[in-house]
Design goal:
The complex is a heterotrimer.
Chain A: H1 12-20, H2 23-41, H3 48-73, H4 81-98, H5 105-129, H6 134-153, H7 163-170, E1 174-178, E2 182-186, H8 189-206, H9 208-218, H10 220-226, H11 230-256, H12 267-277, H13 289-309, H14 316-346
Antiparallel strand pairs in A: 1-2
Chain B: E1 4-15, E2 18-29, E3 33-38, H1 44-51, E4 59-64, E5 67-69, H2 74-79, E6 82-85, H3 97-108, H4 116-129, H5 145-158, E7 163-167, H6 175-190, E8 194-198, H7 202-208, E9 211-216, E10 219-225, H8 231-239, E11 259-268, E12 272-280, E13 284-288, H9 295-302, E14 310-315, E15 318-320, H10 325-330, E16 333-336, H11 340-344, H12 351-356, H13 372-385, H14 402-414, E17 420-424, H15 432-447, E18 451-455, H16 459-465, E19 468-473, E20 476-482, H17 488-496
Parallel strand pairs in B: 3-8, 3-9, 6-7, 7-8, 13-18, 13-19, 16-17, 17-18
Antiparallel strand pairs in B: 1-2, 1-4, 4-5, 9-10, 11-12, 11-14, 14-15, 19-20
Helix pairs in contact in B: 3-4, 3-5, 4-5, 8-17
Chain C: H1 2-5, H2 11-47, H3 55-80, H4 88-106, H5 113-145, H6 149-168, E1 173-174, H7 178-185, E2 187-188, E3 191-192, H8 193-211, H9 213-223, H10 225-230, H11 235-261, E4 263-264, H12 272-282, H13 294-314, H14 321-356
Antiparallel strand pairs in C: 1-4, 2-3
Helix pairs in contact in C: 2-13, 3-8, 3-11, 3-12, 3-13, 4-5, 4-6, 4-11, 5-6, 5-11, 7-11, 8-9, 9-11, 12-13, 12-14
The chains are: A mainly alpha, B alpha/beta, C mainly alpha.
């Protein structure tokens, strides 16, 4: 068989078509359409203040989403990251408060990190070493982690946070005042989300471990035959998810001005929904940082537009559920159709 | 420095008491091309797996230079420069062409960072070496098999390979692609790299090989320069000179036997085209062809899994629509798949459950509940009828030998009393004794009036059981023979001269 | 191979050995769980002689374990076909809320007995219809659309919980007529009614799994979906039916909970998901599908219920003793899975060998 190869008929039209066929493009278009619709109903939507608010609301989920993205690309799943986030942040605050040092905010992050790594490594041990299903393992470690902290460490929400934390909460990169929305500031933790996104993007795109994560999700057997150190890759994946969770956890303490050992419980659904909506496949091998970011943004808009249209916020979960189902069904239908097509091109 | 790269010294290997390889001695020299030829089950793939370190020999040594291995591990084999291109290519469907080609290179060079320019350069260079143009930025999942094969070859070339083993490398390639592949192989030879081809296509064997190794039933029967061999003599060595005597009890199909299955101009784009044949009650019709000839597609189509685009199927003079497995079942068609372990059996489930899997709906008693007594008696009946050897039907199917496993699959279908039975590769991976017994079963079933389609590239097998044989090539029926019209050697020759 | 060497076996001896192996395999697992049940019972009784082995406590355990038990059966069914159903509790809550809303809105003081009965029947039927519809949507997504079970049920879990929040507006629903509460707190010849309902569910599911063609196919589909397809089994249909039964069971569990607690809540029993998976795994249901028995589930449920009650009693003086349970369940789940994985790798092969050699 000899058919024309498209590599040399390159050109902008071809590039354009390639871009418009991506999942990210479809999500981006959806976001634009939805934004215009929301903006027409409520012009305040297009204000800088609203943008700041939305970014602030998305910061924690954004950091968590980067960990979930990496896990999903490898063909795994993790529902323990909210527990890791809450546990490592709570432990960090407890430890630093007990030490009576006037700790600066970075110390909270620094103390929380090892807990994130430890719990992520625990996940990796069960998943990689014992080859147990990731969902059930992380359900187990999540319950264990929340339970451990709440029973053995403490079940009181700490409102009286150390001064380092409080001053961090007050910090702002930029403040705008809007007649409709009021004061709105851009919290520096947004930089953490951007950094998390950049690190994961570089990891996935420019390191061999990152490519190994895609390879693992594409074909575990081929990855083994190629000589990838799969055990190492899986430890990196789940530890990274743990690290990102601990960062998100401390950030959550700062933004909400309390340390809650049961914080973030249930957010796993929304974060996974965002990442799946952004084109990551739970069966592995697919997903991008940009897609995950767009998915998160789309869910954020959908939720806020519900309120604008006058639907009570109790219905938000319905929207997330539908988004998750649609986000999962579209690729499933697409791949079954693709399989049928491919079957007819394989022979002769 | 000696010319020798690899030596197998008195290597033997058996699986479950069946000799796959018997006392093999073999030398592979640097910069030479070898062709490993043999029928199905002759031990070719076992030999490849021994050299790649996937199987350990029962006895004997594998020697690279002055390093002697009794047990060679895959990583050691790679270290010695052995590269195997498997038939499934081990590619990543979700990655691009460039990355698939370059990824092993990057791993073996312990890269941390991925430089995309380098990846593209490596891939472009590797493709250039085999004179192939492929879009580097395209996902492998969207490419046809032929392109994937080229990628696998390009990838292997990038490794510091000193011996490249290619398992049926040319099956899916066009003449032009084969030609450029051979050019590459010739240039590799000049670099001192050895090539071991495992191939079915004898014409190519003769064109490319310096030396030809022929295996028959686990023994090396020929190992010499290819120059002295021609197609006929290779086929003779492969099959053995003393052909087995005619099978006993081969009944003839009476001219009055009704036509069970009539296929007219059946086509399915990309799989097969313009297929027409008739199958009469009591007849065993063989369908043969190389991998990719459309033989399995045709079988799947008749089983409703791959609905045809056009054409007509008539079953017992009634037109039949075969658009789903259920349609096929309703028409009394049964299918024994080629991939017994994945498609045929519930390995972890008891043998008994496997046997009644198909007819469980018919074993109901009072109130629509399963009638345990008839389930038990059905199982006992089929274990006895097909002589399935097991101490208990409650043992998992995985506890059985290949031959007995195939009987369980057969029992599952025969219990449903089909009128037409399609068997794809009925004795693949089955020892000789069981093979003969399964052939007997096939003849008995036909004798009882069932219509049998036997799909196989095992020519002696077809000669043992079939009344007629269709030869498929490129999705079409190329030839049709009565069994008496043709000799094994002729058929073999025709099969491989595609 | 073993198979070939024993070909001289006559039918008689074959049958005997098959019975023996079937009995042994059954016995091994059940025996282990049975010993565990007795051991924990004795342990708890010794630790708390005045609290644990009392009629009141046994009765209260029977009440509690019934609803978890019914949910566990629903979870186990989805695991048998090689999937999972994370939406069981969400389905139960949505069903309970449906029934609750109908009763709260339609039951008025002046209603006659017949009218009340009509409302109650309507409410229960609606709850069951909602449960089955939830199962139907899971089944369609997994069986026909081809969404992985994890993702599909994660999505429906969110959707059903969202619907429950939406229709209730958040707070729990109260005010079920006392005639219905009987279902949750009443007794029949001294046996708690929820336990009777659970036992009826067990009997029905046991019968379905072991004695119907559908049940037979469930096991085959779970152990090898490809071979099931090639054997003419309608995989999507079996998947759909399994999830519809799961939805039905979840609805029943929801009704029992509603009647027992006199309330329906959108996020009631969120820890039950982990608990049902733990019970299923401990009870011998394979995470990869194809294996599991009702007897194992029942014993594992008893183990967990006794542990749960025991922990509560032992840790009562500590604050947040229920959190210790979360910790323990997570730990136990991981431990049991590692243990069975280890047993599977080294144990079963040796076991078969032992059985085959006739010792």
């Amino acid at each position: 068989m000899s058919r024309p190869r498209s590599s040399h008929c390159a050109g902008s039209i071809w590039m354009l078509r390639k871009i418009t066929q991506t999942h990210e493009f479809v999500i981006a278009v959806t976001i634009v359409i939805l934004s215009i619709a929301v903006g027409l109903v409520n012009p305040a939507y297009f204000s800088v203040a609203n943008l700041f608010d939305m970014l602030r609301n998305a910061t924690i989920h954004g950091i968590l989403a980067m960990g979930v993205l990496v896990v999903l690309i490898s063909g795994g799943v993790d529902v323990s990251f909210p527990a890791i986030a809450a546990a490592s942040a709570y432990l960090s605050v407890k430890i630093l408060m007990a030490s009576h040092i006037q700790a600066p905010v970075w110390a909270f992050y620094l103390v929380a990190l090892p807990f994130g790594v430890l719990l992520g490594t625990l996940n990796a041990t069960f998943i990689s070493r014992f080859r147990l299903p990731a969902l059930i393992v992380t359900l187990g470690t999540a319950s264990m982690t929340y339970g451990f902290v709440l029973f053995f460490v403490g079940n009181l929400v700490l409102y009286n946070l150390p001064s380092g934390m409080v001053s961090y909460q007050m910090m702002s990169l930029m403040t705008v005042s809007d007649p409709k929305v009021g004061f709105s500031s851009l919290h520096p933790s947004i930089l953490l989300m951007i950094a998390a996104g950049l690190v994961v993007w570089i990891l996935l795109k420019y390191t061999l471990i990152g490519r190994g994560i895609y390879a693992l999700g594409g074909s575990r057997e081929a990855a083994e035959r190629s000589g990838f150190n799969i055990r190492l890759i899986e430890y990196v994946i789940y530890s990274l998810a743990g690290v990102l969770a601990s960062i998100a956890g401390v950030t959550q303490v700062a933004l909400y001005r309390n340390a809650n050992p049961a914080a973030l419980m249930g957010t796993e659904l929304e974060v996974i929904a965002a990442v799946v909506l952004g084109g990551a496949a739970i069966t592995g091998g697919r997903g991008t940082v940009v897609g995950a970011g767009l998915g998160l943004y789309l869910i954020t808009i959908m939720k806020s537009s519900l309120v604008l249209v006058g639907i009570p916020s109790e219905w938000q979960k319905v929207v997330i559920g539908i988004a998750l189902i649609v986000g999962a069904s579209v690729p499933a239908i697409h791949s079954s159709r693709l399989n049928r097509q491919r079957a007819s091109t394989t022979v002769e | 420095m000696s010319q020798e790269f690899l030596r197998l010294n008195h290597i033997s290997k058996s699986f479950e008491g069946v000799h796959a390889l018997k006392d093999i001695n073999l030398t592979i020299d640097r910069g030479k091309t070898y062709c490993l030829v043999g029928e199905n089950g002759s031990g070719k793939s076992t030999m490849v797996k021994l050299i790649a370190g996937i199987h350990a020999p029962d006895s004997g040594e594998i020697i690279f230079g002055d390093r002697v291995y009794r047990r060679l591990h895959p990583i050691e084999a790679i270290g010695e420069g052995v590269q195997v291109i498997y038939q499934d290519f081990s590619l990543f469907p979700n990655l691009t062409v460039a990355e698939n080609i370059a990824i092993n290179y990057q791993i073996s060079h312990r890269r941390f960072w991925v430089k995309w320019r380098e990846v593209n350069e490596i891939a472009a260079g590797a493709l250039k070496r085999i004179k192939v143009e492929l879009d580097l930025g395209v996902q492998v999942a969207s490419l046809p098999i032929a392109d994937r094969q080229l990628i696998a070859i390009a990838r292997a070339l990038l490794q510091d390979a000193r011996l490249i083993i290619m398992d049926e490398p040319t099956t899916a390639l066009t003449q032009k692609e084969v030609k450029s592949l051979f050019e590459v192989i010739n240039s590799l030879k000049n670099d001192g790299i050895s090539i071991l081809f495992v191939s079915h296509k004898l014409d190519e064997v003769l064109e490319i090989a310096d030396s030809t190794i022929i295996l028959r039933s686990g023994e090396k029967v020929v190992d010499r320069e290819a120059a002295g061999l021609d197609r006929t003599s290779i086929v003779q060595f492969m099959t053995g000179r003393n052909l087995k005597p005619e099978a006993s009890g081969f009944h003839t199909v009476p001219a009055t036997a009704p036509v069970l299955l009539k296929v007219e101009r059946l086509s399915c784009a990309g799989h097969f085209a313009d297929i027409s044949f008739e199958l009469r009650a009591g007849e065993v019709l063989g369908i043969t062809g190389l991998l990719g000839s459309g033989r399995t597609g045709l079988a799947l189509s008749l089983f409703g899994m791959l609905p045809a685009d056009s054409g007509m199927v008539t079953i017992e003079s009634r037109p039949a629509q075969l658009n789903s497995i259920q349609d096929a079942l309703d028409n009394g068609i049964a299918y024994v798949p080629e991939d017994r372990l994945n498609e045929g059996l519930f390995l972890t489930q008891p043998i008994g459950k496997n046997i009644v899997a198909r007819i469980i709906d018919r074993l109901l008693g009072k109130a629509g509940l399963l009638d345990d007594k008839s389930v038990r008696s059905t199982i006992t009946e089929w274990v006895a009828r097909l002589r399935i050897h097991t101490p208990s039907t409650d043992l998992p199917a995985s506890s059985l030998s290949g031959g007995n496993q195939q009987r369980v699959v057969l029992a599952k279908w025969l219990a449903s009393d089909p009128r037409i039975l399609i068997m794809n590769g009925p004795t693949v991976g089955i020892d000789v004794a069981s093979k003969i017994e399964i052939h007997e079963i096939i003849r008995d079933l036909a004798g009882g009036g069932m219509g049998m389609l036997v799909i196989s590239d095992d020519i002696p097998e077809l000669m043992q059981v079939c009344h007629r044989i269709l030869l498929m090539r490129k999705g079409r029926i190329a030839e049709e023979f009565e069994r008496q019209q043709v000799s094994e050697t002729e058929l073999n020759t025709m099969l491989v001269s595609a | 191979m073993n198979g070939v060497t024993t070909q001289h076996n006559k039918n008689g001896s074959m049958k005997r050995s098959s019975d023996r192996i079937g009995w042994l395999a059954f016995d091994m697992h059940t025996l282990f769980l049975l010993v565990l049940v007795v051991f924990i019972f004795v342990l708890m009784s010794v630790a708390m002689p005045t609290q644990f082995p009392t009629t009141i406590n046994l009765e209260s355990m029977a009440f509690q374990m019934s609803e978890v038990g019914i949910l566990t059966v629903a979870m186990a069914l989805s695991m048998l076909i090689g999937g999972i159903d994370l939406s069981v509790t969400a389905t139960a809550n949505l069903s309970a809320i449906t029934a609750g809303l109908i009763m709260v809105n339609l039951v008025q003081p002046g209603l006659s007995a017949a009218q009340l009965l009509l409302v109650v029947v309507l409410a229960l039927l609606a709850a069951i219809a909602v449960g089955v519809a939830c199962g139907l949507s899971n089944g369609v997504l997994i069986g026909f659309v081809g969404v992985p079970a994890i993702l599909a049920t994660l999505g429906t879990l969110t959707l059903f919980t969202g619907l429950a929040y939406g229709v209730t507006g958040g707070p729990a629903l109260h005010g079920v007529p006392p005639q219905v509460l009987f279902l949750g707190i009443g007794k029949f010849i001294g046996i708690p009614l929820p336990l009777l309902i659970f036992l009826a569910v067990l009997a029905a599911i046991s019968l379905t799994l072991n004695h119907t063609a559908y049940g037979f196919k469930v096991y085959l589909l779970g152990s090898n979906p490809t071979a099931a397809r090639f054997s003419g089994i309608d995989n999507p249909r079996i998947t759909l039916q399994t999830h519809m039964i799961g939805g039905l069971l979840s609805a029943i569990a929801g009704i029992v909970t509603l009647a027992r607690t006199n309330s329906a809540n959108a996020d009631y029993g969120s820890s039950y998901i982990l608990m049902t998976i733990l019970i299923a795994v401990l009870g011998g249901v394979a995470v990869s599908g194809g294996y599991g028995r009702v007897a194992g589930l029942t014993l594992a449920l008893m183990v967990l219920q006794m542990l749960s009650t025991g922990f509560n009693m032992l840790l009562l003086r500590f604050s947040g003793s229920n959190f210790f349970r979360d910790f323990a369940w997570g730990f136990l789940l991981l431990f049991v899975m590692v243990f069975t994985r280890f047993l599977k790798q080294s144990g079963t092969r040796a076991l078969w060998k032992q059985i085959l050699s006739g010792k």
